Amino acid sequence: MKKLRVAVFGGSGYAGGELLRLLHLHPHVEVTVATSEKSAGMPVSSVWPHLTAYSELVFDPMNTAALAARADVFFLALPHKAAQDTAAELIGLGKRVIDLSADFRLRNPDTYESWYQTPHTKRDLLAEAVYGLPERYRSRIRAARLIANPGCYPTSAILGLMPALEAGLVSHPEGIVIDSKSGVSGAGRSLQQGFLFSEVNDGFKAYGLAVHRHTPEIEQELSAIAESEIVVEFAPHLVPMDRGILTTIYAPLAKAVTLDDVHEIYSKRYAGEPFVTVLPTGQYPVTKNVRGSNHCHIGLQVNKRTGRLIIVSVIDNLVKGAAGQAVHNMNIMMGFDETTAIAGMGVFP
Amino acid sequence: MKKLRVAVFGGSGYAGGELLRLLHLHPHVEVTVATSEKSAGMPVSSVWPHLTAYSELVFDPMNTAALAARADVFFLALPHKAAQDTAAELIGLGKRVIDLSADFRLRNPDTYESWYQTPHTKRDLLAEAVYGLPERYRSRIRAARLIANPGCYPTSAILGLMPALEAGLVSHPEGIVIDSKSGVSGAGRSLQQGFLFSEVNDGFKAYGLAVHRHTPEIEQELSAIAESEIVVEFAPHLVPMDRGILTTIYAPLAKAVTLDDVHEIYSKRYAGEPFVTVLPTGQYPVTKNVRGSNHCHIGLQVNKRTGRLIIVSVIDNLVKGAAGQAVHNMNIMMGFDETTAIAGMGVFP
Amino acid sequence: MKKLRVAVFGGSGYAGGELLRLLHLHPHVEVTVATSEKSAGMPVSSVWPHLTAYSELVFDPMNTAALAARADVFFLALPHKAAQDTAAELIGLGKRVIDLSADFRLRNPDTYESWYQTPHTKRDLLAEAVYGLPERYRSRIRAARLIANPGCYPTSAILGLMPALEAGLVSHPEGIVIDSKSGVSGAGRSLQQGFLFSEVNDGFKAYGLAVHRHTPEIEQELSAIAESEIVVEFAPHLVPMDRGILTTIYAPLAKAVTLDDVHEIYSKRYAGEPFVTVLPTGQYPVTKNVRGSNHCHIGLQVNKRTGRLIIVSVIDNLVKGAAGQAVHNMNIMMGFDETTAIAGMGVFP
Amino acid sequence: MKKLRVAVFGGSGYAGGELLRLLHLHPHVEVTVATSEKSAGMPVSSVWPHLTAYSELVFDPMNTAALAARADVFFLALPHKAAQDTAAELIGLGKRVIDLSADFRLRNPDTYESWYQTPHTKRDLLAEAVYGLPERYRSRIRAARLIANPGCYPTSAILGLMPALEAGLVSHPEGIVIDSKSGVSGAGRSLQQGFLFSEVNDGFKAYGLAVHRHTPEIEQELSAIAESEIVVEFAPHLVPMDRGILTTIYAPLAKAVTLDDVHEIYSKRYAGEPFVTVLPTGQYPVTKNVRGSNHCHIGLQVNKRTGRLIIVSVIDNLVKGAAGQAVHNMNIMMGFDETTAIAGMGVFP
User: Fold this and answer.
1) What ipTM does the predicted assembly reach?
2) Which of B155, B185, D144, D324 could form a disulfide with D319 if both were Cys (CB 3.0 to 4.6 A apart)?
3) What is the pLDDT of residues C254-265, one digit of tens each?
4) Catalytic pick among A87, A100, A146, A152
């Protein structure tokens, strides 16, 4: 079988490096293009010493027009805003695009402009972009030309709440609190004092309270699931670890349910999903169990004293929260087995 | 001046070791007794290689009657339940006791028995025990014979919420969510697979959801401050770091207030406190900034979209959350300068 | 194609867990048996929450006779000494065995008995056991019934020194110093205070100086390569990280050679090896670049001032240092493509 | 008693921050000046949130002439080369200077120029500068105007080897190998990709092999002690931890000695030293035991098989390896009790 030619735009950031790592394991795919502005002209393996297999692939500088002919599917691991034009140009050339930035995630461009403080100039494309969460939009992904690959925090929050909202378990949704904790790779590879080892190690902190840009993305999807507008309290934190997001969700229960009831609802909802595991009651998920893998683990608790459902979900922010979910989307779009190249389980310990 | 003779009962756990470290810096105090069951007969410095100064102090086995004469003030770093009898015996002998266990923290012994699943046999002593949070009970601590040194999580939660509750900022308190994250030393030094380095490092997890024993302690103190019963959602998590607790508190606001208003209330409340710092608005606390120190840092945010006050407080669980606060209580009881031996700032990085 | 049935004896330790993780990715293999004394009767996925795919495989208690019929190839991830009888019994039943313990690594049983302080009762089997370092013994591995899978430290040391010794670059070999640093998973999953997170994190230490049991294994193989007896100074250290060994080797040069000369010798020696990469001069290896992978990276330096060759090699102790190399050996024995199931590159960051 | 006025030049780096932390605990000292180029005009406590006590001290820009009058003793935590002029100017004004850079450590300015690749323009001052290792130069420190505070690696290496060299235990000193491992704070606070948390965490690496600038400093002092020229193999490594250096030293023995002999020699040599502890035989030092403290712990082993003495020494690179040793030097120069402000033991865990 002739291999699918794929390109990774933005290959020298952590999400781009992870795409390259995973795509190397894909038997039906060949990475023909990888771009990097600052490392243009250098072999991938000298920029990423762990990617020894890419000793002959050399980073190209960004030039969409020139590179378009060399691949069929394009992964965009570019900063938000930069992806708008690139995606539009590639779609115009008949290519399929999986965009890991935030540029096509928010259906309402005004919301985008308000939270991201930058204009959205490709509003027409928003209509056809599909939010790439396979557990919710699998059939639409199959036919999509443009995938808006979900954010890392939203992936963990939405997978955590979806079954409860679908089943009507949650009352007055303004009471939902989403407290997320992320590993440091989520901050990317940019040089900031706050991400130096000596600043981060053996410490913990909160950031972006009340203003984090993943908030509207979470609210959009939860509202769509609940079919009513949901406003959430979303609070991110930074954990001294490489990878992983753990999201603790506090949701007021609409009615008296037992933990077993809830567990059954969740287990049924995700029964056929290759990448979501609902843990037995009494067990809570640990980020380390999904490190390096595309899996999401979910743990549940019902607090009778407070009338709340507590949901804990974990993912690897660079895999299920970025590159792995992007490959999953590609597999669905191309009709490959869904788990190809991303079947690996967590690297523990 | 003749030095005060102090004893550390339970000196081979982390809180006990920290007591020994801090007390060594105290010019008015001499540690004359340290106990350890498993290390009885060994010099402290061979059990704790970092405590080189204690090469001549040898761990005694527990024997309250025999050891009572050798000290004036007794720190109990024993497991809960074990402290009940020991404290009673020492008080009976006219000694002053600072108990780091949970045995005398809950005023209602039935609550204690229900959450700790063990009888409380010293109910009479509960009446006189003083909850050793200096920022709230300073004057009572001065005269106390028996201090119930606060738990680590409760210290961070109560200091975080106290000014807001006192000022009536929080409405329908059943909406309060307290999401805490602790370093691993909080789990003590016991041998459990879940606390092995390879299990914990580079990972993050939740535990004890809805059932953690610090819940009633938090509720007792918050209710006393608010002068009405408060039930909280308290959820602890484990961070791959040695020390530190960061508590994120979500509290529904009773009225529209600005962040500046709240900041002023907090700053005034803690103006004279040597160990509590309210950070400038826009800045959030980092556990690493209080590592090894007795300080509590508090950061604030108001989310207008959700009508919530968000409070973030950090402490070092072994210092302000245990040994340091205990020494603070001793300083107050004995009329020493309050910061003696605990004036050190955080060891950063 | 009918799948090869494989068994993992000792599946609840870290090496056993890693075998299960890797074997799941193998298209020609089915794990039919996994044993664990303490977890017998429990599903693998409840003992190892990261191994979600093994929800139907249940741990058996050890019983070689009863389990022998259920598999064709047996991986022994048992403590040393325990493997002696088990391997002999399985070989007697016509099975093929890959032993990850030290029991069949030392050709001289007296050396074994002296360093391991336990009798060797299967001396006859030693003669046919093949030391499973594919880069040196590939052809013998192909025909072997019993593989002695190399130790983690020896793998890193031997791969680091082999080209230099083969090329006669090293003079008076008594001057060789091997300073190794290992992640904590190398210590296994046993409950010891010294491996608690709070004891290890943010610290570093040496151990086993002059007496570590991997010393004779290193000396045996280096002596065989050099064709003269070599005595080494081997010193292991513990790094606060999960996985990885970095070995720094100091070897007196026999003659004046340039770094480029040495680099060429190493590059040629490992040119065809799928799992060994000699880094460009000026670049040193990082354990994190091989985390979770079967790769070995080697960096080189020549110190003209001291007349020494300095070699730095890194591996993942659980993969190339244990489970990955074991799967590599199985692939060679069975005629599978050598990289099957272990082609994954390092999980970075 | 009127307090001594001290200045910290370069107060926004890690060594500078640590000086401020320690000096705050000094009863006879007042910090009247702290400089920082990039943070000039900002309160120290806003640049260093852990240094809450410095809310009123504001960082000055560097201006030696203008600041000289405001202090009596000057700590220079500036980059090498920058300290040359500043120190000379201050000495010319009659001030006492403790320089934490490398500028006055090497007695031979040609050696300095060769290793640091920059001219030395204050050669006359070199003659009077005293290498500030109290355990060797205490009496000269007392009278010094200019202290060259030792480097972190050299401190650990020299303290480790001094007793053995003084006692003539080491033969053919060209055989000495010094393998050092340092926490990341040793790299300072500069923004480099290689020091980002995600690059460093859970990994280990070597760097600067054969070319590290601390090599000539180590050789100078060891040669002086041995009274013959010593060339060493010095190899630094980076450990994923905040603080701490562990140095493993391999030294060929001149004669057959027992471990007990060596232990006695070391114990006697350091008997009166407040900051050096020789551990009991069989025990090796752990960096975490000296974290945040000015202590050095030394462990010993004799390998009869190889005829080598193995010495392991640990220090906190920011304290005994920088700021703490600087304060120690000040205490000696000023006649204060030597342990004032630096008596604290390690913060463990």
Assistant:
1) 0.97
2) D324
3) 999 999 999 999
4) A152
